[in-house]
Amino acid sequence: IVDREWHRRKEKNVREHVRQASFCYSHASAVDIDYAPERGLDRKKINELDQCDYILNGSNVIIMGATGVGKTYLACALGNSACRSRYTCRYVRMPSLTEELSLAKDSGSFQKIIQQYTKPRLLILDEWLLNPLDENGVSNVFELMESRYSDRKSTIFCTQIDVPEWLSLLGNNLMAESIMDRIIHNAVKILLNGDSMRKRRSPGC
Hints:
Elements: H1 2-21, H2 43-50, H3 53-56, E1 60-65, H4 71-84, E2 89-93, H5 94-107, H6 110-118, E3 122-126, H7 135-150, E4 154-159, H8 166-169, H9 174-184, E5 187-192, H10 197-200
Parallel strand pairs: 1-4, 1-5, 2-3, 3-4
């Protein structure tokens, strides 16, 4: 009876973490990931990430690849693994985040929103640098990255942009370098290859 109650409470806690995370793919699972050779995925690396030690260490994950190759699904699968390990998580698209931060600055609630995005042990930023950031956008992103870095919180970046190109997209200045410094030096990098998974209609996209 005690074991049954413990498992019931654990599952309830996991479901609540998943609900609060607002994943794009709420049922994404590392078990369903497609390891077809053309995708170039390292099963051992994914299994290690699935254990969530990178969150314990405050490390980041950078998932790169073209449109449709499965970046978001993989990130949500890792997010679900984090929830099952009882870590708090949040998923957000970068365009939505930058707009929210900009509006918060205008309304005087900027620090409150920064804290909301700093609190989760794992933050998933989808469509990272898909759209150009203006000077204010870069400054807002710096504040968030600095806050998460200081608190040793992990972030997953899903992007079509190769890391060497980030600096110029962030303004190629000291603030851009500071953002990069807080992201890449403790990051695990995953490159997804192959055709669009939407075309293949695989459940493990």
